[in-house]
Sequence to fold (658 residues):
Amino acid sequence: MTNDTPAVRFINVSRHFGEVKAVDGLNLDILDGEFFSMLGPSGSGKTTCLRLIAGFELPTAGRIELRGEEVTDLPPYERDVNTVFQDYALFPHMSVGENIAYGLMIKKVPKAERERRVEEMLELVQLPGLARRKPSQLSGGQRQRVALARALINRPRVLLLDEPLGALDLKLRQQMQIELKAIQKQVGITFVFVTHDQEEALTMSERLAVFNQGKIEQIGTPAEVYERPATAFVAGFVGVSNLVSGPIAKAITGSTQTFTVRPEKIHLREVNAPVAESECAAPGRIRDVVYLGMHTRYLVELDGGGDLTVVEQNLRTTSMDVLAARGRSVKLVWERAHNRPIAEAGA
Amino acid sequence: MATTSAPQHDLWRQLSTFLYRRSTLSLVLLLAPPLLWLGVVYLGSLFSMLVQSFFHIDRFTGLVVREFTLATYAELFTPANLDVTLRTSGMAAAVTLAAALLAFPLAYYMARYATGQTKAFLYLAVLLPLWSSYLIRVYAWKLILAKEGIISWFVARLGLQGALDWALGLPVVGGPSLSVSAIGMWLVFVYVWLPYMILPIQAALERVPKSLIEAAGDLGARPGETFRTVILPLAFPGVVAGSIFTFSLTLGDFIIPGTIGDSSYFIGQVVLVQQGTAGNIPLAAAFTAIPMVIMGIYLVVAKRLGAFDAL
Fold:
């Protein structure tokens, strides 16, 4: 299935709405067959980016290619991509079967084949036998699956998913994440997945792009983005991160270079605990404790100024123990190697 | 002051608490006035009209004979009366079709594209004519359509006098001038009922989410196919609602046929004459039943076509 031509390529693409730069000078390659996520806060340009691929929006500048062919100014119906909409956008006057068969009906595929493929799709999304229902008779999760089937039946080159799990409750959401991933493997189609949920992006994608203010801050695998955030924004948006700079950084590392360190890498030790050569340390006082069941989050006020967040698993401690830690003086210790120097700009 | 208002305040609180716990009683209290109005005044008079239509008039004495008979209904099928029904229904259908064709693009624009001031302006433009008297507008059209009126003048300026003369020379729809012809009547009917077609269609289109239209395009439908398979079916209840207005209003109207038309009768005029000057209340009542039957059939057909599936 895969080949070297990217499934989607953005060359210097901008989409400005008057003064607002929704997407600004974007360059992006989405590889064939990959599960690619676009992650960012609302208004960061990720949805506009998706709509540019679908053709609902036209760029004000730049060039968009699908599998090496320019589609910059083509209308949606001329593009070999399909979309799963955030509100599912199922046609209320058609049955589930008619909804799924819509793309085939437009392409004038014979009725017998349409029905066969609709059944196939209903199997794939685990809704067999529901073809005659109306969308209004389905639950949110079922509608979601119908929307997916309706897009996939056309065997598009690229499937675009616009926050498709946003309206589902947590349990269903986690189940659909696993299913979506399995379906993507099975059909081998490039998935472009828009989400503002960093956990979702990390668990599902092969690669992801972090959006901020119409630009991409970082593209990489989930591990790369999480462990080596390129900017302060990425460090703060993907997971929780401590940002240390200026004199505090100098006190800890000997350099004023700004760095980030993940809360789960830092350990709470006794004030006079020894510090190994490979570690760095900072004394402080526990100001706040948030007990979260599986783990506990501590907010530690450093003696040198500033706060660090620390997360520790409750392997042996109970809520009583951790809550009693409030106000205690501690020494924060972590491996020097977990410090990630980042560029100052963009914070 | 405080001493007198406090118990009163208390009474209100007790009353509202009392009603809050008895939702059925509240519902009955709220619905009784409108239901009485509808039931007694509206349905009651409708029923008494239907009863009247099963009486007949004694030709000799001119008095209503209060005995059950279908003779009055049979009278509807005399050639002259059948002619009135067909003429009126034909006009109503032509008016409805033209109104729907004119209203749809405007309603579509109002629902999908117009925003802010443009939208307010369009609403006003559609509704403003309804603020002035209907009679005044019909008489204004009489002048506009007259032989010396602005339309004739404009047509002559365009050098299309021949075309107008040809249209007026047509049998049935023609006449000596636009102001005394079925064509003129049709123009005025379309004008006066157009708002009643625009508003329901606009309301129906407004309820169609933009994402449905995008989804159709995304699945490969060209704009024409999207219109046919998604927009029109979803707006159809609005079109049917609008056409119920334009159709039934045309069926019952007697002012426009009397003012603009030639001397051939419409249902509304027959009803007016029969219950007034002729004193034949049973026949007037039977004629009034015609629009009701036609609308009933129309609704059944519309339902069969799936007009209300999307509701």
